[in-house]
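hi!! sorry for the late reply, been swamped w classes. u asked for the two structures so here they r. pasted raw, havent cleaned anything up. first the sequence of the first protein and right below it the tokens
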Amino acid sequence: MSDNELVTTSPTQSTFQDPGLPEHKLRMGDTDPVAAKRSERIVVGLFAVSILGTIGSLLAYFLVVPNETTDSVRNANIALGVTLFLSLMGIGLAAIHWAKSLMSDHEVVEERHLTASDAPTREAALTKLNDGVKDANIGRRTVLKGSVITALGLFPLTIAVPLIGSVGKDWDVSKFRHTMWKKGTRLTTDPAGRPVKASDVTIGSVVHIIPEAPEEERRSHHWITEKAKAVVLLVRMDPADLKESEERKSWSYDGIVAYSKICTHVGCPVALYEQQTHHLLCPCHQSTFDVSDGAKVVFGPAKRPLPQLPIAVDSEGYLIAQDDFNEPIGPSYWERLK
């Protein structure tokens, strides 16, 4: 067999016939006006759900106002969440059902060409678009048009009204500078609230800490919101491993150090401690802090060390705070001095 024969019989040289588009299958609504009308009513109904959800979200924003209780905050969040869900879900499902049952489903193939089409091609494209609009009977479906315009027109209010309503409210950023920690406040376990003795903290152990408060107070909404700023991670290591400046040598106790759990990047809880390296990892964006060296950043997007809580021991051997954190906790914000 010659080389020429090998080339002509090679499978890679074979040609295949273009199968073209599959045969178009009519939908029930294409042949049955009753089915088409039913699909239209479904779409209108879904847009109506979106409209009611938008109105409901506005009512929830103004009427379900949270006060100083956790239950009220939860109820307000649930009311806003459910109504916003209905508003978005109605638009989304209506768009899907409209596209599947009412819009033209004829497949159209357009060959790739230069970006600048000639006049006949543009006219042909415009004709196809007009044919699609006519096929969907949008012009005669006034209720459908009204529902979609109303739903899409009202939905932005769910975002705009809360934004406008926030103007003039509490923008006092000084509250971020201080937490519940005060001189003499005992360190207690989170969430039980049990005071911690220095003698109970072994080398290599990590304890999640909150300020001491009566159990009834710890259940209040105000305390829960303030607790979010005051959470602490307590670590004990060999005092020889600590690298402390002269200013901070009195802030620890026998190798026990306490740092804010709030990451200085975007505020995630930092709680993954590696005993051998003394590194503390934030699980959100992998910012890593060296607990043995002032919780300085050794890796990741965070730009500042974790604020340190100065601690001491009272006459009964319990760990107490000497004062509040040495600087504001959490991420950067405007008007921050440090």
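now the second protein. again sequence first, tokens right under
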Amino acid sequence: MNKLLNLFETKFTLFSLLFLTGMLRFASFYTSPDAKADAEPTYNPFDSISSLIQQFVYLTSLFFLIARGKTSVRVALRDPLVWTLPILTMLSFLWSDFPDISLRKGITTLQTTYFGLYVASRFTIKQQLQMLGWVLGITAVFSFFFTLAFPGVAIEAGANAGSWRGPFTQKNLLARLMVLGAIVFLLLALDRPKSPKLLWGGFGICVLMVILTGSKTALLLLFTIIILLPFYKLLRAKDTIIIPAIVGLIIIGSSVITFVTENWLTILAALGRDATLSGRTTLWEVALEKISERFWLGYGYQSFWLDGGGAMIIWKIEGYKPPHAHNGFINMALDLGVIGLFLFLTILLVNYIRSIIWLRIGKTVTDLWPIFYITFFFMYNHSENTIIEHNSIFWSLLVTVSLSMRRVKLVKRQITAPELLNSQPPINSG
């Protein structure tokens, strides 16, 4: 019975993670390949199926959490702070311009969060990485052949003509999944040096897909991750301020390069005589003005970018309807105000520090996963909105990573992660 239950839970989690990638919506069939075409949304029959899958995923994971009540509560309390954001999203209907939508999507965000709790309470970090390898490997291979089979819908037109988007609505959605897949396969391959051919193959297909999307942000972030690998390893070996300082410079430098690369036409315009600017800088400028109007609590979760919402003036200036601010931090402030942004940055900083402690306690390559994921999550939000989304694998994984790291204090004696599972003094765990 236990073997059958374990098999079911593993398959269920694999399927659920695949669902949270958004691939199963086949959205590119029903979305214009030109992001600025401003075409009316087309009815997607797969959304009805996705809704049923969503209910199955969240009800099943809730059932397992309740069935293992004590374990679930203990794991949930490893990082109480991570629960503040989904609760705030749910409560934001109280001041939202579209209270019904904010409440409904806030509830789904809370469900996405407790799915992350389920994964953290049921599987080890190594098991999580292995499952992510399967999920993102399937996503990469399927997206490759899907694009070859349906180039008319899977390859973008307009400003991004020739960029692969696969079954997703936009190239950057595929690109960030492929960067995540490259990180996962890189860590898995380094963790199994004796038989890594298939894993290096997974890394290769993810890198190829990143290149085919034409996303400069994705390439720069992937390059940054590879550069950071030896320095993060040194964090384990050397207790010195030099290594964290170098890591900080690399992250800041890469963030600046990413910003300049993504917005170089706008920057050139700003340096010349075009006082009106264009592109994302204009969008961000107007968005910041809108933030100042509702500084503390924002416009309500997922309500700003709706027809009739605060984004109408931005759409008028831009000449098309961007679905978000192309910056996760600005988008967070629009949704949940400066309070929400402060909570998010605090969550990220606290977990980055915890991931360093976790890295120094562990001995395996897979113990690098938390610090790499938090780095990925932080850096991608400079140009995309990857912070807190309902039905999003990215937010769910941040919760999983946060709750998978036990509360520990660094001690002089280095111990391995397996030893940590049997936590004995002098380690304090919670």
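hope this helps!! also noticed smth abt the second:
The longest helix spans residues 328-361.
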